[in-house]
Each structure stands twice: as structure tokens, then as C-alpha cells.
Amino acid sequence: MSASGKKNSRSSWPGLSRPSTTLVAFTEREDVDGRDKPGHDDVRKPRFARFAAMTFAIVGVVSIAVGTWITSLGPLPLEQARQVSATVVDRNGKLLRAYAMADGRWRLPADAKTAVDPGYLKLLLAYEDRRFYSHAGIDPLALGRAAFQLITRGHIVSGGSTVTMQLARLMEPRRERSVYAKVRQMVRAIELERQLSKDEILDLYLALAPFGGNLEGVRAASIAYFGKEPKRLSLAEAALLVALPQSPETRRLDRYPEAARAARDRVLDRMVEDGKVSREDAGLAKAVTVPKLRKPMPILAPHSSDSAIAIVKDATVIQLTLDSSLQKVYWKH
């Protein structure tokens, strides 16, 4: 065959040879890219389904385990936490006599709205739990700050516990300090917030907070250390009462007054830094000496009080028609 014939034979059917080559190349490129390759979507769907199923299974198991653990904690011991010393008051509600609890503790009921100095409450919440009225038992910002301070300073500066968490710890005291104990406090704090109002939580804390020895609650501490109810407190007194519950046994005024004074001054310094107290007022408060001896609980109208307690049993507060002012004058003479 001539050269010209060969040339004609190669070019006689251009529509068959070239398009078929192009189609094969195009198909191969699509297979490599995976965009149109059959079976890719079918492979991905089972993988995603398996991953989702595993995720839901893990979440379900963890949820069941956490729920079982929370249930095992049982109900909050509110009835036990509300037990207080029996008190006898006069016709105006002033304390005539208080009786220690069966185990020897002095725990007097406290009403934050009517029986405690507002200045002390502001100082307490500013120092211990500034977002008390907005959180639901746990303050993530406070916990984050505590974690950051631990990392940067190498030791615990603040625990990040809210007043509600501290109340949970007081209701179920435990010696160990661990992650488990902290998580337990968080769970209990959430339960407390769901069952009680903020005022009820604050009142319970003010009745249970430890102040060293057998003194519990701000009223018992104020009467024992200052000889008066906590309705009107000086800045020095309020700062001292804020400081003592953090470490009540190592700051007992009748044993370690200097440690108590140093703790009080740290509270004042912190309040100056936060702009809650002026530097001048803090300086004047620091100049006040701390009491070193406990004062006795009031015993006015003892015979009438004993008779009332014997007759009206299981009552936490018994009111008499007597006047405490007249009783004070009588017992002085």
C-alpha cells in the first residue's frame, strides 16, 4: 500500500479513534478525583453511621453512670441542717437565753434580712461569692480563676467555691480534699439551688458556718466574740467574721488571735483592691484589736426560760412576755 493510502486509512474515521481516547482519559481522571466514582458515598455513609452510633452509645453509658451516682447520693440532709439551738426571746424578739444543742454546739438561727448587718453581708458576698445572686450553684468564672491561679502560682490561692457549694460541704462534712469531693459539692450545690431560694441558702449558710470550737453561725460567733447580735457590726468586726470560717480552728480568737487578725487584714486588703472599701477605712479597721476571750451566752430570766423549755418541747424559738431590758436591770442588782 502506498504512503498516501496509509495516511488515508488512519484518517478515514476520525470520529471513532479520537473521541474514544478522550472519553477514556476523562473517565480515568474522574475515578482518580473520586468525584463521580461510583461507590464513594456508599462507603462514607456506613462510617459516619458507625461513628454516630458509637458517640451516642458512649454518651448514653456516661449519662446512665452519672445519673446512677447522683441517685446514690440520696436526698439532701435539709432536716438535719435546719436543726438549731433552742432559744427563748422576750416580747420584742430579743434573746433572753439560748441552749446548746445535744452535742454541745451553739448554732443560732439567722435571718439575713432582719438579723444580720447588711454591711457584713455585702462584705461576705464580695469576698466569697460576688455572683451569688446570678449563678445556679456553680460559678464557672470563679472556678476558672482558681485553676489559673493554681497553674500560674503553683499553689491554691482560692478554691472557686460558691456560698452554695460551701453550704453543701457544711451539710455533709468530709475531711478529704479531692476532685471527687469538689464534684460532689457541685452536684449538691445545684440540688440546693433547685430546692431552695437564694435567701434560704444564705440563711442556712449563716447558721452553719464554723467559727471555731463549738460556735456555728454568725449569730453565735457575734455574741460570743463581741457580746452582741450581728445586727450592727463595725467594719473590723464584719471583716473578722468573714475571715474566720475559712480556717476556723487555726484562727480561733481564744487560741490564735494573731492568726485571726492577719486573716481579717487580708480580707480588708482584698476589699481595698476590689474597690469595696476605702484605704482609709481599712486602715482604721486594722488598728482595732481582735478579742481574745469568748463571752458567755446571755442568761436572762433563767427560771422563766427553763420553765418554758420544759413545757414547750421541740420548739426552736419560744417567746415570752418579758422585757429583756428590765431583766438586765434586775439581774444587775
Percentage of residues in strands = under 5%
* Low-confidence spans: 1-31
SSE order in H/E notation? HHHHEEEHHHHHEHHHHHEH
CATH architecture of the largest domain: Orthogonal Bundle
How many helix segments?
15
Description:
The protein folds into 4 domains: 27-64; 85-107 and 299-333, no CATH class; 134-208, Biosynthetic peptidoglycan transglycosylase-like (Penicillin binding protein transpeptidase fold, Orthogonal Bundle); 211-295, Penicillin binding protein transpeptidase fold, CATH 1.10.3810.10. Helices cover 57% and strands 4% of the residues. It has 15 helices and 5 strands. It has helices at 3-11, 14-33, 40-72, 78-81, 118-128, 140-153, 163-171, 179-195, 198-208, 218-226, 235-243, 257-273, 279-286, 302-311, 324-332, and strands spanning 87-89, 95-98, 106-107, 215-216, 317-319. The chain has a 3-stranded mixed β-sheet with strand order 2-1-5, covered by helices on one side. Strands 3-4 form a two-stranded parallel ribbon. The chain is globular. The model is unreliable at 1-31 (pLDDT under 50).
